[in-house]
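Protocol step 4 of 6: record predicted structures for both targets in the notebook before any analysis. Target 1:
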Amino acid sequence: MNNKAKVVIIGTGFGGIAAAVKLKQEGINDIIILERSNDVGGVWRDNHYPGCACDVQSHLFSFSFFPNPNWSRSFSGQAEIHQYLRDCANAFGLFDHIRFQHEVRKMIWIESEGEWEIQTSKGVFRATHVVGAFGVLSDPLIPPIKGIENFKGETFHSATWPKDYSPKGKRIAVVGTGASAIQFIPEIQPEVASLHVFQRTAPWVLPRLDEPISLKTRKWYQRFPLLQKGKRLKIYLQRELLVQGFRNPEKMKNVQETSLKHLHHAIEDPILREKLTPNYTIGCKRILLSNTYLPALAKDNVEVNTTGIAEVKEYSVIDNEGKKIEVDTIIFGTGFQVKDLPLAHHIYGREGHSLAQEWNGSPQAYMGTMVTGFPNLFLLQGPNTGLGHSSVILMIEAQVKQMMKTLKHMRKNKLEIIEPTQKAQEQFVELVEKYMRGTVWTAGGCKSWYLDKAGRNSTLWPGYTFTYRRLAAKFIPSDFDGRRIIATAGEEELSFRKIK
């Protein structure tokens, strides 16, 4: 089997599928897609914990080029989104390109050949271009806790929830109160003997305005696709309006009041209510949506612990006040390795150092997609392309369009190698920093996973999605260094000529 391709894509989540579809539509079929698991879907394959669902409406959390008129709810569940990605991959013939159970372990740029060498668990691949669609929510983050290795019960992260696990009658400790925890806690609470929720920072929680989409409505969408496009546009515009609040924290007062009313309605106990009241501006950390999380915390078999875990024993957890809590299971709802992507330590660029070394804890990229010194590499959902208000799929599609324009420029000018100039990358980062100043993410009074080692918000795009999409739609040749590989007759060495 041929292990060389024009384009190798790493990952089969939304990013990998979007890139592969667009490449094929543009006539580039020399594609290999590497997937470390045995199915497509990325985080929507892996995260199958009870209650797992999206917090962006289904009509917007889907590809513009592959609408699904059959969404069953306003906010889809994990299984439905996973099936959507399978359907999309099948509809565009992607399964023929996928190499399952191929985990990428190392990538090395070979300048003399203008290619990436990709070392995987099942052999070595070569590619002129690599699309890094490995995502930022792929590798679970489990905090170091003293004595955790001595625990005799079950421990797992929400992203690796055992399919055969039953919480019935068990004493469970949940570490973390983020987006995953607020979904699975209400699902398991009625079944458990006791639930001890260890909260470091209280999240802001808003009502989840979810409802079924009737069969009649779905049939209308099937018959008249423009109706669904109109619904998608309406959701899009409503969500874009939220940007004003994120960029001007003083405008978040009404939203914050709504969240406080939601909290007061669900929690009568003043002590618990105080524990669950955030001490920072709403939006500084990820805003969570749930109608069931807060009521679940008020149940008799649930305790919210804000002191933190000091140590884990064989059959118990000791909090920082010395209280011993006997548990059978510890579930981590502690998020992902966003700030320090594991694969970044194993991608070596033109100068021989890794992407992690290049970033040094503070990721930067041109348009959040290409990195100086790492030629012919396109990162989807790279630095500053995440969103706090809308669907990241909008950003992914914009990045893919930018990638296609780059490839078209290379083909037109007969270039084999391309990367952004240092100046262009720095100018983009400066633009992001300008937009970021004064936003709720930097001025909201919290520490979040959005912030990197340098204290920068290198995760989110700090503005409207249409602003980013407009920027990404422009291809500026002067922002790039392009090179041709020219074989010198009679010599083994290759010389390079830089084309502006």
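Target 2:
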Amino acid sequence: MLKKLKSEVDHFKSQTHNFRILVFTNLVYALVLPVIDIFVAAYIMRNSNDTSKVVIYQLAIYTGIPLTFLLNGFLLKHFNIRKLYSTGMMLSGVSMIIMMSLKTLDLTGIAIAGITMGLSFGLYWSNRDYLALSITNDENRNYYYGLETFIYTIIAIAVPATIGWFIQSKVGETEKHTAYLIITGIVFLITIAASIVCFRGRFENPIQKKYIFFKFHPLWNKLLSLAMFKGLAQGFLVTAPAMLIFKLLGEEGALGKAQSIGAILAAIIIYFIGRFSKPEDRIKTFSVGLILFAVGACLNGFLYNQTGVIIFLLLLLIAKPLMDLAYFPIQLKVIDIVSRIEKRGEFTYILNHEAGLYLGRLLGAGTFLVLYYAVSEDFALRYAIGIIALLQLCSIFISKKIIAQGNKLAPEDEDEKIDPKALEETATNIV
């Protein structure tokens, strides 16, 4: 056992300096992600008891993200990517401070906090995606995302349970509110620590300085449709577990426990899939994740009780990492291919990819809101996830077409680099 563990440590040490630093940065920042994803939604539910406000908050976040992706392209001309990446992480703490300072959770205050969190995520994800693309290749991307997902899943065991216990240990609304304030302060300190780690990396900005195009290769258009289906689930799935648990399981203590069940097994499975799977295994991984998600969502809709929620969360705990483990390497592989064909910088595609995600997020969140206002809250919580999960099964067929076409277009020399001069010449075609 120790020999096997040592070999895994040695394998990690064999990766490049920037690879290791990016993993360490994301490891530290991962400590705050469960707080952002789960307990901010729980805070809104506790203080308003209105699931529509949770979804509106999420829509505000998703509106801020693509705007910041676009802004980040401009900022990269003037600032080092490490500064922008660090700023994105710290803004998440600022957003929580804004939320906790609201005396009443009106729509204006929720929207401001949501937009700020969107700015945070926009800076974080746009730069994180570019760095992941630039420091990995198609052969080690399964390992990178498997390792990262393993870390996130392990942290998802301890953080929700610990925070849930901490909040539930307080008596009365005043003490519980104070607990949220303490958590917010800790989150801000962690984002500072993650920023310090980030500055140990030798990360370079993208070569190309202009990123806006309107015509793309057919292969990229297929990936945008896949991104739309991914965004469809994101538009509701981030806050859905918190709303379901708060409605059907109880308060934050139950929320933390439910998120931790089965997470250790899931983390180990995901790590070894990422460590030993090959690029050609991505379709299988993606399909299993999508099917598990659909089964869990449909069972939740059919049962709509405590058992249904727990089953859904258990399956989601495995399904979501599997989907991400396959999706991100597929996305980056397509960027590798089309950026060579079209002679454009990689950040062009990272920026454009967000448009596909945003459209899907609007449709996903919109599905919930339409069902909420047209029928009822319970109807929306019960059936929106199932509808979205079944629609997402289309992603299996789209991803098969993407990989098949990508294999035909992939250059023989995978290490081929884009000529910077060609990038500058192509920039004249930008609108």
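Step 5 preliminary note on target 2. The chain has one domain: 11-429. The chain has 18 helices and no strands.
Proceed to step 6 after PI sign-off.
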